[in-house]
Amino acid sequence: MTPEEFIARWASNTQNERSAGQSFFNDLCDLVGVPRPTDEPSNQLRYGFEGLVEKSSGGRGFADVYWLGHFAGEFKRPGECLNAALSQLEGYAASLWNPPVLFVTDRLRIQIHLRFSGRQPRTFEIPLPDLRSHANLALVQSALSAPWSLESHTVPYQPKPLTFTPPAPVATFDVLADAKRVRDFIAKIDVAYRDLMIGDNRWRRTSLPTGGMTLVSGLNSYSAMKMIPADLRSIHSVLKSIQDEIVVDLSNMTTFFRRFTQDNGRYWFAGDDAEHERFLSTFSQLRSNVTRLQNSVKSLVG
Predict the structure, then answer these.
(1) Which of 8, 201, 275, 289 could cysteine-pair with 271, CB 3.0–4.6 Å?
(2) Under CATH, which number does the domain 3-153 receive?
(3) Domain range summary for the chain, segments of one domain joined by +
(4) pTM for the whole thing?
């Protein structure tokens, strides 16, 4: 079948999706030179029409055409919404071994959606007349016969690096404002400490209730680790030695933050007994120095 014959046949076809969809797909296979689903009856369980699937939202449905782990397709009548067809396929994906190519068409246009793991999605739309293009025919052929070859048409996700902007230097000395920042920091430490002590410290895995996320998400953030010392530097020089000890304690704590994992809304310290004891000792030392700092601030500002 030539592109002109294919276009002429389907440009004005108004049959419903089920009766025409399979014929359209078979003709498309002939056009780009790939096997039809019906060519090999023994392959029907992995490449065929009307595949029974479990929906991600519950219940069952039928994928119009599928090749397990490679591609899945949905047919619609001319002019119908292809976004709805794509949503259907996305709900079937797990049952079809998460194919990297999702194919939807209303016979007047073909959309090829690339969904490779760890890479940004990409969509190609080919209006029916554009099947005269050799490049578009090659794209359809790859989608139906070697979908993994299309991974090069996508780009990897690029996680944004964690950035930190140092705070502006304090122009004037304001001990009351600085003391408030210290008190806020002390309050966070106290919350984390109380939540930590709720768990049984004799257990190898120390449980942190959700409120104790300060320990993991607050102090573990790069900006928090840098902002706290910056704030403390502007406090009266009598606090300098305590500040330095707290900075060392915070630095030591970062080695333990990586050992926390989340499970059912709770954070667990998954280390051996020795690591667990070192963690408790380091945290206790941190809180002791914070208490010294608190007392110094109280004596400083009254």
Answers:
(1) 275
(2) 3.90.1570
(3) 3-153, 175-301
(4) 0.54
